[in-house]
Amino acid sequence: MDLSRRQFTKIAGLATVGTVISSNSVWAANSDTLKVGLIGCGGRGTGAAEQALSADPNVVLYAMADAFSDHLEESYTSLKQKFGEKVQVAANKKFVGLDAFQKLIDSDVDVVLLATPPAFRPEHLEAAINADKHIFCEKPFAVDAPGLRRVMMAAKKAKDKQLSLVSGFCWRYHIPKRETFSRVLDGQIGEVVAAEATYNTGELWYKERQKGWSDMEYQLRNWLYYNWLSGDHIIEQAIHSIDMLSWAMGDEAPVKVSGTGGRQKRTDKKYGNVYDHFGITYEYSNGTKAYVFCRQQTGTTPSYAVELTGLDGKCLVDCRTGLHEIKGKNPWKYDDDTKFTDENAYKKSKVKNMYQQEHDELFASIRSGKPMNDGEWMTRSNLLAMAGRMAAYSGETISYEQALSSMEVLFPGDISWKTKYDIPIAVPGIKKFK
């Protein structure tokens, strides 16, 4: 049977929903303890460890790794207080330094959680798959095309080796969004003729330089502001909106990508070389255009949503208020008995935490012996965000294929605490696409 990509995506998405195991009794039937290793002990990594420990009654945190000992110890203390005996990280299983990831992977762990700054993801993912580990891989997965190509190959290898690989694109595991986008893919609003996605938010944390920090330590502790570590905020943060947009479009590749961006508010040197706003246009083969806007500017109106216009109606998914609604010929609204009047109401709703859902499904797949692999669509979304940044940085219109084939390297790979590395701020029209 010859399926279009849109049909394939819809069927695969519904199959995933159908295989969710909701009862811990299935896991409990397997008494083997799963040992988890956490690589990257910041806030997101600590959260991922919490969800992993909550996903299965017979899981323990066995090893931890981070470039910085203070990150590791803060995370360990927090997790130990919350989970007690499920945290079994001995002193010799706390690995610190730039090579800590390999030491953890070489330890006796079954599942690895990858949550370091994105630039390290390709190497860490490759190492974990080569060592036959099941993986939770936080988004994004690479900051440049050479790195993403490594991830694509690694994901294929994971599938060949029947290892589970779950991505940190949490909205793909959010039940209301599965319900909504499955309807869009089923044609409930007709052919999509226009789309918009936003991730407009305030500014994030910054860590003042401390005595004794090398240039490299300072940059690693403020990795958000260096595109060679984060990919810039269109990849590090707004990629969630881009992923939802791609999902709604059947994960089809656009034919052209153009964009703009720059630094209007975050102009201080402490903000490294990243932009504070982007505006991207993705054009598809049928003429549909999708617009993505994102900014990190305090004092501006927030927006975190995807809006789709079809021939038979409109669909709105609002991540701040929890509204999931279709208007037009076939109206529909997701309702869990909560009135989503504002963001706080949404947080208090009955909708299951999507971060927990992704770990529940990961561990269920391991227990059932039916590995899941997010590799294909997770790398497509990463490439879409990357193509947007490339187009904005250069001011050139590029194709999806050009973005994938790019030879530009942002992350140098082999770094030490003494490494000095600097990439100038991109100026459209001067910086050229490579």
UniProtKB/TrEMBL annotation:
SUPFAM superfamilies the UniProt entry points to: Glyceraldehyde-3-phosphate dehydrogenase-like, C-terminal domain, NAD(P)-binding Rossmann-fold domains
Recorded superkingdom: Bacteria
Pfam families: GFO_IDH_MocA, GFO_IDH_MocA_C3
Gfo/Idh/MocA-like oxidoreductase N-terminal domain ranges (all copies): 34-160
Entry-linked InterPro entries: Gfo/Idh/MocA-like_OxRdtase_N, Gfo/Idh/MocA_oxidrdct_glycsds, GFO_IDH_MocA-like_dom, NAD(P)-bd_dom_sf, TAT_signal
Record-annotated GFO/IDH/MocA-like oxidoreductase domain positions: 184-313
Sample GO molecular function, one term: nucleotide binding
Listed name of the protein: Gfo/Idh/MocA family oxidoreductase
